[in-house]
């Protein structure tokens, strides 16, 4: 099967973020949410000559009616069919259950996220360490979360509750778990900002960066002003290296199709070729814009030695 085929440009999150942090740019982690939109995200990377991360969360898999195997199959099919050569990570976002993580790894995901952030610190450490041991044995990177990131649309998380990441706890968490990347809470939120406005606590981010050797991640990239985000990855001592972007892509797709309500994956697959092309073009344009003016990764694919 295609997901078992090795593509040299499909790399781990750890490898991707090492280059991004050294280059003082961030890599967008884009959730197409529908398998027909995976191609659109990949083509954006080619056109912008940018590294990228293609991701989907456990809740998105459920909400849109997709299995990790289906998502992985389509990803690897398009990597081959479109001759994608820019560096790409296939990432499983926010997931709380080891069976789903194992399923994704079997499907060829090169990075997974265990999100036990709503649990007490010791339980978060225990669950995250278990996933690290499992995934690292299979050559897969692991992201975890410490602190709680608020939400506005409840696709990724269950509660609109924030608990900012404590820098000292972050240092201890990383030491105990061995994670490759850490999602931190310092002011952004999942979804669209309607009432509450985004803000980033740069002092907290700097303190976390000073105490932790791993790469930092900001979730909730949709709707954050570009200058605010860029300051987060251009901190003098090194800042954020991965930024999650999902809602903006779906909004672009729905707007291009002239609809407001999200679809199931099956509904998206059933769209006419003309409608699919319209939607894909909108998603590609949105991703290119994010690469060029938001995470500043356009043109950075040449930094990678694959």
From TrEMBL:
Q: Per its Swiss-Prot or TrEMBL entry, what cofactor is needed? A: Zn(2+)
Cofactor comment: Binds 2 Zn(2+) ions per subunit. One is catalytic and the other provides a structural contribution.
Q: Which residues bind dihydroxyacetone phosphate?
A: 191, 220-222, 244-247
Q: InterPro entries of this UniProt entry?
A: Aldolase_TIM, Class_II_FBP_aldolase, FBA_II
Residues of the active site: 93 (proton donor)
Task: Give one Pfam family.
Answer: F_bP_aldolase
What GO biological process terms does the UniProt entry carry, in alphabetical order? carbohydrate metabolic process
What residues bind Zn(2+) 1, as annotated?
A: 94, 190, 219
Residue ranges of coiled coil: none
Any one GO molecular function term: aldehyde-lyase activity
Keyword annotations: Metal-binding, Zinc
Which residues hold Zn(2+) 2? 115, 145
Tell me the protein's name. Answer: Fructose-bisphosphate aldolase
Provide the species name: Paenibacillus taihuensis
């Amino acid at each position: 099967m295609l997901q078992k085929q090795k593509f040299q440009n499909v790399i781990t999150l750890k490898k991707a973020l090492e280059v991004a942090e050294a280059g003082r740019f961030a890599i967008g982690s884009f959730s197409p949410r529908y398998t027909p939109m995976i191609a659109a995200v990949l083509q954006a990377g080619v056109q912008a000559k940018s590294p990228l991360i293609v991701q989907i969360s456990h809740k998105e898999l459920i909400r849109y009616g997709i299995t990790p195997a289906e998502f992985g199959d389509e990803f690897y099919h398009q990597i081959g069919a479109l001759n994608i050569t820019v560096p790409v990570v296939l990432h499983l976002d926010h997931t709380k259950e080891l069976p789903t993580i194992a399923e994704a790894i079997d499907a060829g995901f090169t990075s997974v996220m265990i999100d036990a952030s709503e649990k007490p610190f010791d339980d978060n450490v225990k669950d995250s360490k278990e996933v690290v041991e499992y995934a690292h044995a299979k050559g897969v990177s692991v992201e975890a979360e410490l602190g709680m990131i608020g939400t506005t649309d409840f696709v990724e998380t269950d509660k609109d509750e924030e608990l900012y990441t404590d820098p000292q706890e972050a240092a201890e968490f990383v030491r105990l778990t061995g994670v490759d990347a850490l999602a931190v809470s310092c002011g952004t939120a999942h979804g669209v900002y309607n009432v509450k406005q985004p803000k980033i606590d740069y002092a907290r981010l700097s303190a976390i960066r000073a105490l932790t050797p791993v790469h930092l991640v900001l979730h909730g990239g949709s709707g954050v002003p570009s200058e605010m985000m860029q300051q987060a990855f251009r901190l003098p001592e090194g800042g954020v290296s991965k930024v999650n972007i999902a809602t903006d892509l779906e909004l672009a797709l729905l707007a291009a199709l002239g609809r407001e309500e999200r679809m199931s994956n099956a509904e998206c697959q059933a769209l006419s070729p003309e409608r699919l092309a319209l939607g894909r073009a909108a998603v590609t344009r949105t991703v290119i814009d994010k690469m060029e003016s938001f995470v500043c990764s356009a043109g950075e694919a040449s930094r990678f030695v694959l």
